[in-house]
Amino acid sequence: MTDVAALERYLDLYADYLGTLGTDAAALAQLVESDLPRDARARVISALNYVFKSVDLIPDGIDDIGFLDDAFVVRVAAKLAVDAGGSGGDLARLAGEAADIASFLEADHVRLENYVQGLRRSEARGRTVDDVLDDAAMRAEFLTEVAAWSAAYEIPSFTKQPKTLVKLKAFLSAKLP
After folding, report:
1. Residue-wise pLDDT tens digits, 32-84
2. CA torsion angle for 100, 111, 81, 151 (degrees, to 10)?
3. Cα dihedral 125/131/133/138 (nearest 10)
């Protein structure tokens, strides 16, 4: 990753990802009760559930990159939702942006995608993806929490310097199973 133009492009993209994370989460939440196929909705829920996990790949408090793993998971999960039959609007946009993550992470992208696929079986705040899909009361509570988080989300600082990308790659490389 020595191409200066590519570095600048990723820095701009990832600043944008952080800038839209709250609205992206709100847009995905609208799909939870849509007519998307069940597996596509499950992928959306798993991404939103990840935002609430207390143990992220990158802790949210890490300067510059703490919320980028959330933004990456949202986009990779959107791609998986599209692969599962989802389509349209914000879902398609986010899924398309997953290609930029793949080109940045190179070989580690497969590990990230496998990790995001595994989130389908995970739990956050005592809720599994299936709980949210199958229990209307739990789904309503989940969607209320997503809406509150989205509204309260404050765009974190992001230093547009190559060392930020080095730190991001190093964290993900070390933490991805």
Report:
1. 999 999 999 999 999 999 998 878 899 998 989 999 999 999 999 999 999 99
2. -70
3. -60
Report which secondary-structure segment, H or E, holds 128.
Answer: strand 127-128
- Are residues 14 and 67 in contact, defined by beta-carbon separation less than 8 angstroms? no
Phi and psi at residue 156, in whole multiples of 5°? -75, 165
* Distance (Å) of CA 38 to CA 82, 139, 165: 12, 14, 35
Model-level pTM?
Answer: 0.95
Contacts of 174 (CB under 8 A, 6+ apart): none
Environment class of 112 (CB within 10 Å of its CB; exposed 0-12, middle 13-18, buried 19+): buried
Distance CA 113, CA 117 (A): 6
Torsion, CA 123, CA 20, CA 97, CA 141, rounded to 10: 30
Angle between helices 68-83 and 108-118 (to 10 degrees): 70
